[in-house]
From TrEMBL:
Pfam families from the UniProt entry: Trns_repr_metal (PF02583)
Protein family according to the UniProt entry: Belongs to the FrmR/RcnR family.
InterPro entries the UniProt entry points to: Metal_Tscrpt_repr (IPR003735), Metal_Tscrpt_repr_sf (IPR038390)
UniProt-recorded name of the protein: Metal-sensing transcriptional repressor
Length: 92
């Protein structure tokens, strides 16, 4: 299990995810109400964009901050950070 940490961008990421959650609830309601497909597609697009931006921000933040810290760490910590970096890049 990795240690818990918080970055400056995490509150922004949380806001984006909560916005996406709201959009997703809207999509569910719209489908249940029998709304037009174009309206549903527009809301789904908003969900996708919010989640994609949250992911992009998270990964960029990791690259900017966690790898900087790893560059100053001991060799063992550097190896761990590099392995973590390789792991997170599969989500790009």
């Amino acid at each position: 299990m990795t240690k818990r940490h918080l970055h400056e961008t995490h509150p922004d990421i949380l806001k984006r995810l909560k916005r996406a959650e709201g959009h997703l609830r809207s999509v569910t309601a719209m489908i249940e109400e029998g709304r037009a497909c174009i309206d549903i597609a527009q809301q789904l697009h908003a969900v996708e964009k919010a989640i994609a931006q949250a992911k992009k921000t998270l990964i960029q933040d990791h690259i900017d901050h966690c790898l900087e810290a790893a560059a100053m760490a001991t060799p063992r910590q550097q190896q761990s950070a590099i392995a973590e970096f390789k792991e997170i890049t599969k989500y790009l």
